[in-house]
Amino acid sequence: MAYYMGIDGGGTKTQAVLADENGNILSRAISGASNPNAVGEKQLIQVFQTLFLELDNEGKTRLENVKLVYAGIAGSANPANHILLESILSELLPHATVFVEPDAICALYSGTYGGAGIVQIAGTGSITYGMNEAGEQGRVGGWGYLFGDEGSGYAIGRAGVTEALKSVDGRGEPTILLEMLYEHFQVLQPQELIKKVYNAKQPKTIIAPLSRIVFQAYAQEDVVAQAILQQAAKDIASQIMSLYRTLFTSDEKTKVVLCGGVFQEKAVMPVLLKDYLKNIPLILVQPEFPPVAGSLIGAYKQATIQVSQNMLEQMKNTQ
Question: To the nearest whole percent, how much of the chain has pLDDT over 70?
């Protein structure tokens, strides 16, 4: 029997699933980072070798039966990175046909099941990616925390600190964010708060989790937190609308898959976002499956295997 593999790789970890042509999940594996912008060629080879050994842990030479691999890897939009990844995977899996795509496509497929649509990713960073019925792909944003990432956890966390400090200056509205940040950092004054952030080796990793505090303040009806999340929703809506106009016709009903921690509170950001997008025929979807399931769906799509409802049920085992 032929087997199919889906891979979802990023700057922190890489996940893979192996399945048969009927959607039965045979094995799952997880390894280290596989974004070529973050790791070198030798480390990439090691990461994939570890991944495949774990997938084949029962020693039944399953990997020799892999017919097709669909890998969604962060950083693969760069042509040189794409060639490198395709070369490594093809060498490690010589019997398989290899397809390498940006990781956002896997996230898209986790909600559209291989169909056209838009995926809005908003975690630590943010990016809007999409594909229309003709297979044309496009992106908006994703330029990193220095030049973009609007609506991301980082952007929300940074705004939370900024507005709290404005309240200290008397330039902004009073907000419970200030005391919540003090408590989070175990400090008593703004200078100590700033020192905690600036002394961090990677301030981004300190600031992005502060978005949770903004959501907590929002739940307590803090007007400053409400304004921050309204702005984040507006920024995300702007990105989605821009990509929609590029890839789809004005009356084309389109799924928008929402992925990432910013959408975790289903009653907050998805609701705010829906209000900003109410005049466009978009269907907001929060996927039931992780992106690695989307990569497996991508493998089946390339093999022209129709994904049935029963197969989708099996994919819940990729969680």
Answer: 98
Interval 12-37: pLDDT, tens: 789 999 988 888 888 889 998 888 88
Residues 316, 291: Cα–Cα separation, whole Å = 12
* Residue type at 131 in one-letter notation: M
Quickly count: other Cβ atoms within 10 Å of residue 309's Cβ.
9
Sheet holding 97-101, edge to edge: 25-31, 14-20, 3-9, 66-73, 97-101
The three-state DSSP-derived secondary structure of the chain is CCEEEEEEECCCCEEEEEEECCCCEEEEEEECCCCCCCCCHHHHHHHHHHHHHHHCCCCCCHHHHEEEEEEEECCCCCHHHHHHHHHHHHHHCCCCEEEEECHHHHHHHHHHCCCCEEEEEECCCEEEEEECCCCCEEEEECCCCCCCCCCCHHHHHHHHHHHHHHHHHCCCCCCCHHHHHHHHHCCCCHHHHHHHHHCCCCHHHHHHHHHHHHHHHHHCCCHHHHHHHHHHHHHHHHHHHHHHHHHCCCCCCEEEEEECHHHCCCCCHHHHHHHHCCCCCEEEECCCCCHHHHHHHHHHHHCCCCCCHHHHHHHHHHC
Burial class from Cβ neighbours inside 10 Å (0-12, 13-18, 19+) for residue 178 reads: buried
Res. 10 pLDDT band, cuts 50 70 90: confident
Q: Are 224 and 171 a contacting pair, CB within 8 Å?
A: no
| Cα distances (Å, whole numbers) of residue 91 to 72, 98, 119, 135, 303 | 17, 10, 31, 28, 20
d(CA 167, CA 154): 20
Give the tokens for residue 88: 């490594």
The C-alpha atoms of residue 233 and residue 268 are separated, in whole angstroms, by 10
> What are the pLDDT digits (tens) for 227-243?
999 999 999 999 999 99
Contact 72, 119 (CB under 8 A): no
Beta bridge partners of 141: 127
